[in-house]
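queue> holo job accepted (adenosine-5'-triphosphate)
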Amino acid sequence: MPVLFPTAEDLRDIIFGSQLCHIATGGEHLVYISERIPGVVVKISSNTLRFVLRCGEPIDKPSDETLQAIEQEELLQRGERMTRICSYFGSKHTLEERRYLLPVPLSSSLLAAALGGRPSYSQELSTLQRHLSDGAAATAWAVVTVQPYLAAGNALSLVGGYSDDGAKADTLDAMIYSQVTHALVFSGRPIEFFDRQQFLRVQTRRELGVLLETLDHDAALRAAVRSLLRNIYDYVRDTGEILDTAGPGNILLILDGTTWNYLLVDALSIHNEPVLHLARIAVTKLLSGSEITGRERLFLMKALNFLRTVNGIGACVDLNSDIILSDQTLSFGSIDCLRETRQLVAK
Ligand SMILES: Nc1ncnc2c1ncn2[C@@H]1O[C@H](COP(=O)(O)OP(=O)(O)OP(=O)(O)O)[C@@H](O)[C@H]1O
Ligand SMILES: [Mg+2]
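queue> job finished
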């Protein structure tokens, strides 16, 4: 059934009418449902607040120029990328969504999601918390996404997390990390070098282990995962983008009777830039002995985790991927990725 999306005015009424019920919080979104619009979720992005602060503007009254920039990047460009993703995966496998840019009530949970655990925003966080409790600040502009509500049924996540991001790098066995990363990201021969135990020592998300165990004894799931991965490989090869395999729930495999369907719920990377392509440029720089920028390091970390995840799962279902993170295959030890990713710190 087609989704009935609210008008911006109605959505604003619903959000300000205290009729939202919180159901989840992800890395970016605060996710709600409302009796006033059954059948959909309302997802408030916490990233918009940081963007406005970075522009040096008040979160409740950003300039027209800033609002136009957000609209351009977060609504228009993302809309075009969503259309492209639908053309690769088909509308049956993507979740319809509409995005709005509007003021939302400022809350301590929005402040915590946007600014908590980020040292460079600690000053703004305490100022805004004080304004919130004084009643001096009541709203913040935010991108809000409305999507059909998915009942939590029998679903598995295709997820990889960020195993080597910043301090997490120090919890990994450096040799195993290098072997797995070389096999899955730089060798061009993932199946030949694949070692499942080692893979799971690097990619430690519990949901990934559950997916691999279920794959072992469910032929229908294997077929669905192969079909999903083929489309993912085509998409990333053609666009130079990655998908967001970091969080559980972004890409789901859903059991419907005896059939597994896959669904991209929140799979579009938050970056409008082609992250895989830019990470390859960073790798070329590292190979030539040059330093890379913080932004390149972030893209490198994201592309490494994405490719390890999808090429590793591919190896588990005997699907070969020739997508690598360099212009040509590298020999073992050519590049020390952990040295780079451990330098990332929350800002
Ligand atoms: N359409 C939906 N229907 C029901 N629940 C949803 C829906 N979209 C998201 N959720 C719930 O909200 C959680 C976070 O969703 P989402 O991926 O959109 O947020 P996020 O901030 O991008 O999180 P992450 O950083 O983990 O990807 C999901 O794991 C799921 O529990
Ligand atoms: Mg997500």
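queue> Residues 223 and 317 are 8 Å apart (CA to CA).
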